[in-house]
Amino acid sequence: MKPVRLPAAATLALPRLALFALGLLYILPGLIGREPWKNDDAASFGIMWTMAHGTWQDWLVPNIAGLAIPDDGPLAFWIGALGIKLFGWLLGDVLAARVGTVAIFLFGVLSLWFATFNLGRRQDAQPLRLAFGGQPEPDDFGRTLADAAVLIYLGCLGLLVHSHETTADALRVSLTAFMLYRTVRYVEAPSLRNAALSGLAIGLLTLTHGWVTPVCFMLAVFACTRLLAQPVGRALRDLGLAFLVAAAVTAIWVVPAHVLQPYNRHPVQDWSALHLAQFGLPTVVAYKFFFRVGVWFFWPAWPFAGWAIWAWRRQRLALHIVVPLAFVTMGAIMALCASVPEQGQLLILLPPLAVMAAFGLLTMKRGAINAIDWFSVMALTLCAAVIWIFWFAKLTGWPAQAAKNALKLVPGFTPEVGAVALPVAALATAGWFALVHWRVARRPAVLWRAVVLSSGGLILIWILLMTLFLPDLNYSKSYAGVARQIAQKLPPNAGCIETNVGPAQRASFAFYAQLPFTGVEGGRCDLLLLQESTRARDNRDVAPHHRGKQWILLWEGRRPADKDERFRLYRRAD
């Protein structure tokens, strides 16, 4: 027997405009006014900026001012570089590169919504018919489940930061949602058209992050066809077509990069070998990372998803359980087999977990739903209050301990009241209290009531951080200030600069200070920029007697918020 009894009153869908506005409230804060931050965000922007202002070779070899970066495929960087080309003159290069980030995020949310909607309107997912009628219509039921899945997705803690970065991970998770949607469409209605569109998703994923993830997802699709007892011959034929379409999409980059060998490099070989080396047998480190980080990374999706597996155990071959569970299983295997565990590897589990969580939400008891609501209200309201207290303290000095804690992370920073940031933060806070009042006073019976406060509260926290504390975060996480200091110390008519700085630092220095780093081919330079650690030197450090020559120190400095990192600029003595 199905575990769901639901009246039509519980399937009231969110207004489309409200859902769209919620998505924009989620994605826009943290994109506007934010400088490229340390590590992956700045490094990825550097690749996009180099492509947009470089030659055709830069579009085939992802690099940062001459430093080749074979970690990811070029698709995400092509999108960002295209944004710079089209809108850089109007928005500036940083914000123009993030136009693609907004489009990528909305594309992923839309794919997730349609995947859940198609699963929810199927007959095997419908609730039991009520004795006197009044059960929801299939389409209404599907829309409500899709809204709930989107709210759960937006409430996941692991998605918050990664979706706002200009990295390949943001595109990877959205394409995973698209692949999930195309798999749902194919499995429920096998056809050559749906197989070809699945191949399109596989090809785009390959161009984004490598071939390992798409191959594993193809295995997940095949597993779904076997569990649902579809003919083996037709499944193999359709997967073959999907593979051909994926190969054609991937060839857009692979063929010219392999034939033309830009900068006399082999970017496809480097990229393929690097991704193959990232996977091996499961390790204890990977297990510890998965469960330690996953507890908060997948929250609040994983409790609902786990409950869905239990609640629907008698209908375990239902499509809405088989497809997302196959993707979750394959994603977990890839995460556990990673040689170097990273949070980006966990992102691909979020879309299928959100779908499963929506179906788990159906069977939750009213007491459990109310407990989740009250926990969200108390925890998120407390977090918002703490943020406001620290913001007030850093401006006024009271409470003294809060002011000390807020300012010790940004030594030398002078806090100011933002003319736009403060009203936006105040409006967001007022909106939160209005949402809480609506939920408590009206006590709506709609299905998504259990997660609207979780997602709304998380959006509030993010808006407060990206308004009240955005100048502080830019000050502590950006290399813009250091880049301008180096530019002031450059000799007149400076030639090229040799350096050992990392990708994020190289990107920031090239963008903010236009430092003339050596190209991919390398070369002899009269200037040397070193990145060192005050604690311990790493194998990238170069002594001032570089290549047997004496060097004269021109400048030394660091970011005020980072006491471990240090930069030195040298000029040849001869």
From TrEMBL:
InterPro entries linked to this entry: LipidA_mod_glycosyltrf_83
Molecular functions per Gene Ontology: pentosyltransferase activity
Subcellular localization(s) per the UniProt record: Cell membrane
Q: Is the keyword Methyltransferase assigned to this protein?
A: no
Assigned GO CC terms: plasma membrane
This chain's protein is named Uncharacterized protein
Q: Which organism is it from?
A: Duganella phyllosphaerae
Q: Looking at the keywords, is Transferase present? A: yes
Give the record's keywords alphabetically: Cell membrane, Glycosyltransferase, Membrane, Transferase, Transmembrane, Transmembrane helix
